[in-house]
């Protein structure tokens, strides 16, 4: 793991985005990472229907999601809003 990218143990549900949002920090810059509900359902192999299920599923998959986010950050794969969308 690249130690220049840190992931604090913080996550929240964004109703407007229908996604779990979590921060990453790289060289002092705060980067917003987003995992859509559909991606959580796909990765977990089950239907994720609400915010609590999304947060629980995120917690289960956290390590893999952080690895994916790290690779996307290193590739500078930001979306039009400056976020990292963790989708495959």
UniProtKB/TrEMBL annotation:
InterPro entries: DUF1488. It holds the Pfam family DUF1488. This is DUF1488 domain-containing protein.
């Amino acid at each position: 793991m690249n130690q220049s990218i840190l992931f604090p143990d913080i996550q929240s549900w964004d109703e407007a985005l229908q996604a779990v949002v979590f921060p990453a920090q790289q060289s002092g810059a705060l980067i917003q990472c987003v995992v859509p509900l559909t991606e959580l359902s796909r990765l977990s192999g089950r239907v994720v229907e609400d915010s609590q299920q999304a947060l629980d599923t995120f917690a289960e998959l956290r390590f893999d999601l952080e690895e994916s986010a790290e690779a996307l950050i290193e590739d500078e794969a930001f979306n039009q809003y400056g976020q990292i969308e963790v989708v495959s």
